[in-house]
Specification:
transferase; globular; six-stranded parallel β-sheet; about 375 residues; Rossmann fold; alpha/beta; 2 domains; 15 helices; about 15% strand; seven-stranded parallel β-sheet; Glycosyltransferase_grp1
Length: about 375
């Protein structure tokens, strides 16, 4: 076995991280980094009142050498966002000029040592002036201007960067063909938390018929999931739940009012989430855009069959699994039919599900990440 050259990496976090696949990937790579010859330091730039990455995900603290927190005196009102933007644009460069020599790679800032990670396609549309008007309508003219500037800057930077990493082979091809962005595929893009899986068996969770776990909103198909749950309720599957944070601008309360569907909120504790999956009958995941689908892998590992829309990433990573049923995109009726079939055969599907879920591990994802960094070092 060849010697592994140690790598030291600085990860820069701006503001309170949301519960998402991207956040899970970062925290799990940090958590598994030492086994693959990597050490992480974390620099956090936090507006007033916001919780940082290390505080929110305490399990990574043992795998961090140095943790630096810079607390800004403003919250995220309009003035605070302007100050935040200036700080990111000017002060971070000064900080990196001082500390960058001790790192092999930097994540989260434009720098010659930067690693650029993409978890989705760029959130930008042409022509830019029409995109700006669209943003202004859902926020305000000033915030829309900052958002547009940041989105376009990230898009342009990604096009010229030689150190892009993207979440999976499907996203790699999409970025290349539609946006002219070249990247190295992190593959598999995500995995299952083995410790949470072990602990989940000791937790007694409420039993649900159908659950929908996601960043709740239109992109992840929450409206379609609610429609199917409402139909299932009339057919005797009455105990259904939504789990996860709610996207900005999505009125979840309005969507579920008058329906027998519970909202459990975000579940940050992995073992508790896995226990909920273990005690449910079906995961409904009608996502319309995805690069992988971490929650699908997690559900399968807990013996939970899945019904999803037939989109490229879900088909690529889970299409061969007998415990995953796919319905044509945006076809609620077929989604309902597949859900009923899976509920009818759920007992025989559980073993298939567990077998499929065992194929995905965060250790494999971290190894892929390390291999990509080694290729960057070799090219340098």
């Amino acid at each position: 076995m060849k010697d592994v050259i140690p790598l030291r990496i600085l990860y820069i976090n701006y503001g309170e991280p949301s519960l998402s696949g991207a956040t899970s990937t970062i925290t799990k790579i940090i958590g598994n980094s030492r086994k693959h010859g990597m050490t992480f330091d974390v620099l956090e730039i936090l507006p007033k009142g916001e919780e940082g990455l290390v505080s929110k995900f305490k399990e990574i603290s043992d795998n961090i050498d140095e943790h630096i927190v810079i607390r800004l005196p403003f919250n995220r009102n309009i003035l605070g966002k302007f100050y935040f933007y200036i700080y990111k644009s000017i002060m971070i460069k000064r900080i990196l000029n001082e500390i960058s020599p001790k790192y092999d790679f930097i994540m989260g800032a434009k720098h010659e040592k930067n690693i650029n990670i993409l978890f989705s396609i760029p959130l930008i549309q042409l022509p830019l002036w029409k995109f700006y008007i669209k943003l202004a309508r859902v926020s305000n003219p000033i915030e829309a201007l900052f958002w547009l500037r940041n989105a376009y800057s990230f898009y342009q930077y990604s096009r010229i960067s030689k150190r892009n990493i993207c979440a999976g082979v499907i996203l790699r091809e999409q970025l290349k063909n539609e946006f002219g962005i070249q990247c190295h595929a992190l593959d598999p893009p995500g995995g299952v938390d083995e410790e949470s899986l072990r602990k989940s068996s000791d937790i007694t969770a409420e039993k649900f018929d159908v659950i929908h776990v996601a960043r709740l909103g239109l992109v992840k198909g929450t409206r379609d999931a609610i429609w199917v749950m409402d139909k299932l309720n009339r057919l005797g599957f009455e105990n259904n739940a939504l789990i996860g944070p709610v996207d900005v601008g999505y009125d979840l309360e309005k969507e579920i009012v008058g329906r027998s569907i519970r909202y459990l909120g975000p579940v940050n504790d992995g073992s508790k989430l896995y226990s909920l999956m273990r005690n449910a009958k079906l995961l409904l995941y009608p996502s319309k855009l995805d690069s992988f689908g971490i929650v699908v892998a997690e559900a399968l590992a807990n013996g939970l069959p899945v019904v999803a829309y037939d989109i490229p990433a879900i088909r690529h990573y889970f299409g061969e699994c007998k415990a995953v049923s796919l319905a044509p995109l945006d076809n609620r009726e077929e989604l309902l039919k597949e859900a009923l079939k899976s509920l009818e055969h759920r007992d025989e599907l559980r073993d298939y599900a567990t077998e499929c879920g065992s194929l995905f591990s965060w250790d494999a994802t971290t190894k892929s990440f390390r291999d990509i960094l080694d290729s960057f070092s070799a090219n340098d």
